[in-house]
Amino acid sequence: MDTATTGAYDGVRTASRALATEAVHAGRDDLARQGLHAPPIDLSTTYPSYDSRAEAARIDAFATDGADPVGPPVYGRLGNPTVARFETALARLEGTESAVAFASGMAALSAVLLARSSLGLRHVVAVRPLYGCSDHLLTAGLLGTEVTWTDPAGIADAVRPDTGLVMVESPANPTLAELDLRAIAHACGSVPLLADNTFATPVLQRPAEHGARMVLHSATKYLGGHGDVLAGVVACDEEFAGRLRQIRFATGGVLHPLAGYLLLRGLSTLPVRVRAASANAAELARRLAADPRVARVHYPRLGGAMIAFEVYGDPHEVISRVRLVTPAVSLGSVDTLIQHPASISHRIVDAGDRRGAGVSDRLLRLSVGLEDVDDLWADLDQALGAPPEGQPVGCAESGTAPLPQGRGGTPSTAVVAECRCGGVL
After folding, report:
1. CA distance 150 to 360
2. CA 258/CA 85 separation, integer angstroms
3. Best CA proximity match to 116, nearest among 188, 171, 164, 44
4. Is 420 a known active-site residue?
5. Among the options 28, 58, 206, 221, which is catalytic?
6. In 8-105, where do the E strands start and end?
7. Which position among 68, 196, 291, 379 bears the catalytic label?
8. How many CA atoms lie less than 13 Å away from 125 in the CB half-sphere?
9. Residue of 131, 222, 299, 312 with catalytic role
């Protein structure tokens, strides 16, 4: 498949360098001058200082605005040089002034909510679906927040004087629904928009270019890319980054330096991985959409490596029969993962709310990896089993359709198809 059809846009430039170049070099620009090639891993928890007056002054400065302390590091909870390299690189890729890394994606979201709540802005407007634990954190009010759920058209009316945040995810987890981020940012007015960009990554979409003030990633997923690191990060302007650093220091949700190193390494191959996995996913989406055992396929116009599909048969049986594909939560790794959102990632969401957001009980979520696409299809084909009794082999009303042009006029090969012969999911 032509890589130009996957939605990836390696030719897009961040500042004076293309995205693919930034992915390799951002956060590492100083290494050659130090006689280094690979970034060092700084595992220190604390750092010596013989000038306690100067150290006190730097801590006072951090307490004022949360800016990174000038000079040598002070303590691991204040900041770490290895983690800072990853933060610099991610900010460059997302096109923001700064980025602040955390121990997990949920720690990152919690810090954002706490930062806004500390200003008396405890109300959040949100659009479903979101990642299940994000939905639960907002709905349960565990951090003292109150949420109003709405559709995109209702955002402006849902905003109140105490609204601190509008939160969306596009493409959404797990339905892959896409939102017009620019229109949503306009509807937010002066309220900051937080866009979860975990599925798209900055390779496919940079929400800050469309008006989002904060960009959230579960860095555990595509940014790390190998299923061996747990992390979260928020890309934003420097003013808000300072507040997030203060929250991180106070609550202790810091990222371990080894995780920071792995994430920086993961970014260097991010465009290549996303492009290759997206090519596999587009091909699998086409095959699934033409399969009589599949009722509906969700694949974003943006492209990407995520597919959601609804089956006529028992989705749990499909999960039990895969052999090459790994039945596991999470996503964005080099290997292909499948899971049943209603049972796992979105189990924590009220069933009515879950179904109302389009997360049906027969929906399966597939995170497509880098394996040979024919091997992946062979495994899915046998896992889907025989068509359910009474189900016609093929349907004249089913089909695939090319979607509108992708970013930069690149033709999109993504498809969305569903059976319209009256089958009930």
Report:
1. 19
2. 12
3. 164
4. no
5. 221
6. 13-14, 17-18, 98-102
7. 196
8. 25
9. 131
- Token code pair at residue 144: 């003292």
For 171-192, what is each residue's pLDDT tens digit? Answer: 999 999 999 999 999 999 999 9
Report the alpha-carbon distance of residue 139 to residue 114 in Å, rounded: 15
Which of 212, 214, 211 minimizes the C-alpha distance to 241? 214
Name the residue with tokens 């359709």. Answer: 401
What residue has token string 């009722």? Answer: 295
* Annotation marks residue 275 as catalytic: no
Could you give the CA distance from residue 200 to residue 218 in angstroms, rounded to a whole number?
11
Of residues 415 and 246, the one with the higher pLDDT is 246
Ordered DSSP codes for 260-278? HHHHHHHHHTHHHHHHHHH
344: tokens are: 């796992």
Q: Determine contact, residues 412/401, Cβ cutoff 8 Å.
A: no
Tokens 């696409």: give the residue: 373
Q: How confident is the model at residue 344 (pLDDT cuts 50, 70, 90)?
A: confident
Q: What is the DSSP code (8-state) at residue 75?
A: B
Indicate if 196 belongs to the active site: yes
Backbone angles phi, psi at 360, to 5 degrees: -75, 165
The backbone region for 312, taken as left when phi is positive above 0, alpha when psi lies in -120 to 50, beta otherwise, is alpha
Residue type for position 204:
L
Cα–Cα distance, 267 to 275 (Å, whole number): 13
Tally Cβ neighbours within 10 Å of residue 246: 22
Catalytic residue among 42, 47, 75, 77: 77
Backbone angles phi, psi at 251, to 5 degrees: -95, -20
- Three-state SS for 196-239 is ECCCCHHHHCCHHHHCCCEEEECCCCCCCCCCCCCCEEEEECHH
299 is catalytic: no
- Residue 411 has φ and ψ, to the nearest 5°, of -60, 135
Q: Please report which confidence band the pLDDT of residue 70 belongs to, taking 50, 70 and 90 as the band edges.
A: confident
Q: Kindly report whether the peptide bond that precedes residue 171 is cis, defined as omega within 30 degrees of 0.
A: yes
The CA distance from 267 to 324, in Å, is: 26
Length of the chain: 425
Strand order in the sheet with 123-126: 98-102, 232-236, 214-217, 193-196, 163-169, 123-126, 146-149
Strand 326-327 versus strand 337-339 pairing type? parallel
Contact 358, 349 (CB under 8 A): no
H or E, element range at 174: none
Model pLDDT for residues 210-247, shown as the tens digit of each residue: 999 999 999 999 999 999 999 999 999 999 999 999 99
